Amino acid sequence: MPNTLATFSNDCFSQCHNISFITIPRGVKSIGGYGFNECFQLKNIAIPASLTSFSSNCFNRNYSLENIIIPIGTTSLGSSIFSSCFQLKNIIIPNTVQELNTTFSQCNALREIKFSNNIPNFVGSLFYACYALTSDIIIPSGTTYVPYNAFYYCSSLKKIIFATPSTIKGIGSGAFYNCTSLREM
Predict the structure, then answer these.
(1) Could you tell me where the DSSP H helices lie in 35-101?
(2) What is the DSSP letter of 133?
(3) Block mean pLDDT (10 aa), the chain, length 185
């Protein structure tokens, strides 16, 4: 791809079922909604440090995607960006991201997620049906509300740590529903 690209618009590679690897050129700053939606064979993506914004459903339903590194400097991860990425196992979210919104819903193989203690906003069914999630989850400082269905059906999750318990004012409906392995909060 040409190095002159600055953005990928909505649906630019949506439903390109046979793409298995893509290198996003340096200089690209954003990917539009559904940019790589339903690229069923996409396993690896090389993302440059210039990329700061991922729109909603950007990598939605990429069934083969296993690992991804979100660059430091990324500020925006659109809602449902990784929903239904059934093979996604590990992810690191940099401290520059401001909000997580239904980000990993139905990532059935997701075992470990690391995110900064600075993410102020959790929204929606963040880890809905992430059955394999076993890493300890630390709810960041400044979080005031654990949203509805946040950890719904995270049946392997064992421990939730509130970085600053005194800031939590509410827990939404179904937030920890069917977390059958949860032992400690």
Answers:
(1) none
(2) -
(3) 87 94 91 94 91 91 90 88 92 83 89 74 85 87 85 94 84 94 92
Global pTM?
0.83
Please give the structure tokens belonging to residue 38.
Answer: 């339903």
CA dihedral 158, 163, 166, 171 (to 10 degrees): -40
Closest C-alpha to 86, from 122, 48, 53, 131: 131
d(CA 125, CA 142) in angstroms, rounded, equals 19
Estimate to the nearest angstrom the gap between the alpha carbon of 35 and the chain centroid: 15
- The H-or-E segment that residue 44 falls in is strand 44-46
- Domains recognised in the chain with CATH numbers: 89-185 (3.80.10.10)
Q: Give the containing element (helix H, strand E) for 122.
A: strand 121-123
**Token pair of 49 as six digits:** 């440090």
